[in-house]
Amino acid sequence: MYALRDGWTIVRRNLSQMRHAPGEIVGALVFPIFTVLIFGYIFGSAIAVPGGGNYREFLMPGLFSMTSTFSVIVTMNKVAADNGKGVMDRFRSMPMARSAVPFGQTGADLILSLAGYVAMGLCGLAVGWRIHHGLGEALAAAGVLLLFGYALHWVGVVLGLMLDNEATADRLTPLVFPVAMLSNNFVPTTGMPAWLRTIADWNPVSAVAAALRQFFGNPGVAVSGAWPLQHPVPAALLWSAGILLVFVPLAVHACRVAGR
Fold first, then answer.
1. What is the pTM of this model?
2. Where are the alpha helices (DSSP H) in the chain?
């Protein structure tokens, strides 16, 4: 209970900071909209979906999955900034649960991510994306997406605590893009060379995108024989659980020992 109370205090602290940084909120809302418009209209006229179907409906689950991947960047930069300014040292000097800092940081970032997902979904609906399987499966898709994004926020905490300042974190940002791009987010993996297709098929980002397509009833489901894409929902859940099992203890431990 003490950890939950302290964690909620950190969530409120981080959300309060966002009120004084409107640019961060605007960026979180505008970036998803731009990605829908850019990828939807540039790629949409050049890529055919296997089995037929609207490319924008194929694309939207991939964009959701890509945006969740950037959860690593969001949290890494914030934690690295706090680490560089000595905020983490102040937290460690306070009578609070050591797990409160990472729980609070990931909780606040998840709320901001949710706002970005909503903005992206509304823009997708405006350009022709549709949900075909009803509210229940749409909520299940949202649960899978939020769980995966939340798991990646914990990865960001660990990476941020390993860095001394935000500038160093910015230099590592481009390393996340290959993870998002080497997947089925934008194109089916069937046209890739065999070795590259294997990497893309087993990329957890691909499993999340395929799971969302299955829940939403969008085209592009099970176009590969790889197990994660044949069973995308269990694969996405297993990847998320595995990431949490590894990185939650690492993040809490890093908060305890950082600076010693």
1. 0.89
2. 2-19, 22-42, 55-69, 71-85, 87-93, 100-126, 134-161, 166-172, 177-181, 194-201, 204-216, 227-230, 232-257
DSSP letter string over 80-102?
HHHHHHTHHHHHHHSSS-TTHHH
Q: How far apart are CA 204 and CA 66, in angstroms?
A: 11
Q: How far apart are CA 243 and CA 97, in angstroms?
A: 22
Cβ-based burial of 2 (10 A; exposed 0-12, middle 13-18, buried ≥19): exposed
CA atoms within 13 A on the CB side of 104: 27
Span of 59-63, 100-104, 164-168 with lowest mean pLDDT: 164-168
Round to whole Å and give the CA distance between 215 and 138.
Answer: 6
C-alpha 204, offset from chain centre: 11
Q: Under a CB-based contact definition with an 8 Å cutoff, are residues 106 and 161 in contact?
A: no
Residue 46 CB-density burial (10 A; 0-12 exposed, 13-18 middle, 19+ buried) = exposed
Sign of the Cα pseudo-torsion (92, 96, 102, 108, in order) = negative
